[in-house]
Amino acid sequence: MQLIEGIHQIEVPTPFPVGAVNCYLLEGSPLTLIDTGVKSSLAIGTLESGLSEAGYSIEDIEQICLTHGHVDHIGLARTIMNRSDRSMNVWIHQMDSERLIDYEGYIDDRMRAYHRIATESGAPIQEGILDSQPALARYFLKLGESVEEVRFAEDKGMIETGLGALTVEWAPGHSLGSVCYALDSKKVLFSGDHVLGDISSNPSLDFDGILGISLLKYFESLEKIRKYSGYSVYPGHRNVIGDLAARIDDLLADYERKFNQTEEHLGDVPTTIYDLSRKLYGEYDSGQLILALAETQDLVRVLESRGQAKLLTHNGILCACK
Ligand SMILES: [Zn+2]
Which CATH number fits domain 261-321: 1.10.10, 1.10.3470, 3.30.70, 1.10.357? Predict the structure, then answer.
């Protein structure tokens, strides 16, 4: 579907609850694809038919710009490179590049991180996170592939496309190496999963802690792109965002509500992060466990940084209290 002259959106299906990922084709030379979809025959077929509707084939793609290193965005990069007979630039921010350069290693890392967060948060054994891990890892491994030869999309760097230069805006939060690409010539911002129209960006899920509390980093990154209010915002999932400033304000207000709710559930007696997550999110299923624990930890950390909560270790388990 052509969004404006020279820019086509292709909705590529994923097996995840979020639904399709939006890939964007920028016409002209070099013919540029922003994000790729997962590696599946359904995704390849959909990408092919979207490209052909715009008058192109996979073999015509000359450059790939990735908004971040999650598999729904990077999974097909290797397949597209293999189908091309020319050398191709694949751009990704350095902090997400390891995920692409060594996809298998990244999946191993993630599984270890999931195990760690479930254990340290006090999730009961019946949540089954340990038993289901090998199957989960096998499932993810099928959906992506490594690309060793990448170029780093650096903050404020410029990448030439057929429609003008893209400016890279590093926006850590959803992942450490998330970027937005601004196309000033068309007043368009490709926001990846940093800002989505009607769903959360889940900025707590990349909980490495290297950059500090990921929620706070995410808030900084939201303010960083506020200057693109007035641009059309083309996100990684769902619909185009018309009013960026309003969306940023909504997201910040949502989090303030969550901080208040979290504070209300805290008492003088320490409660485990797992128990607190059940109070906050109710009867979520085991597929949502890691996300719920990661966000609960982050909410408490932010409250602690404001002097409104304490995070402590009790019998080896992370707990929170007033
Ligand atoms: Zn995504």
Answer: 1.10.10
